[in-house]
Amino acid sequence: MGRQSAVNQKFNLILKSSTISGSMTFNKPNPQTLVVFVNQHQKQLHTLVVVLLSLYLIAFAAKLMWQIIPCLLYTSDAADE
Questions:
Q1: CA–CA dist 48, 38 (Å, integer)
Q2: What pLDDT is attached to residue 51?
Q3: Is the Cβ–Cβ distance between 7 and 14 less than 8 Å?
Q4: End-to-end alpha-carbon separation of the chain, Å?
Q5: Domain range for residue 2?
Q6: Tens of pLDDT along 19-37?
Q7: Residue 47 shares a structural domain with residue 81
Q8: Between 6 and 80, whose confidence is greater?
Q9: What is the chain's mean pLDDT, rounded?
Q10: In whole angstroms, what is the distance from residue 57 CA to residue 26 CA?
Q11: How confident is the model at residue 58 (pLDDT cuts 50, 70, 90)?
Q12: How many Cα neighbours within 13 Å face the side chain of 37?
C-alpha cells in the first residue's frame, strides 16, 4: 500500500509541474517566445507559406482563365460568321 501511494504522489507531482510550466509559457507572451516558436517550427511555417502562396497562384490562374476563355469563345464565334 505504501509503494502505491508513493507512485501516485510522484505522478501527481509530475502532472502539477508540467501544468505549471506549460501554463507559464502561454500566460506571458513576448517577442522572445515568438522568436523561439518560429525557430522551432521554421520548416512547418515555410511549408505553410509555400502552400498558401500556391493556392493563391492557382486561384489567380483560374480567375485569369475565366476571363480569357469567354474572349476566345466570342472571337471564334465572330470569325465563323
A1: 12
A2: 98
A3: no
A4: 98
A5: 1-29
A6: 444 444 456 778 888 888 8
A7: yes
A8: 6
A9: 77
A10: 35
A11: very high
A12: 9
Domain count, the chain: 2
Determine the pLDDT at residue 31.
86
Output the nine-digit C-alpha cell for 50.
Answer: 509555400
Checking if the pLDDT of 56 tops 90, the result is yes
Q: For residues 70 and 50, state if they share a domain.
A: yes
Distances (CA, A) of 24 to 13, 21, 35: 17, 5, 17
- Read out DSSP for 22-68? HHHHHHS--HHHHHHHHHHTHHHHHHHHHHHHHHHHHHHHHHHHHHH
Q: Is residue 61 part of a domain?
A: yes
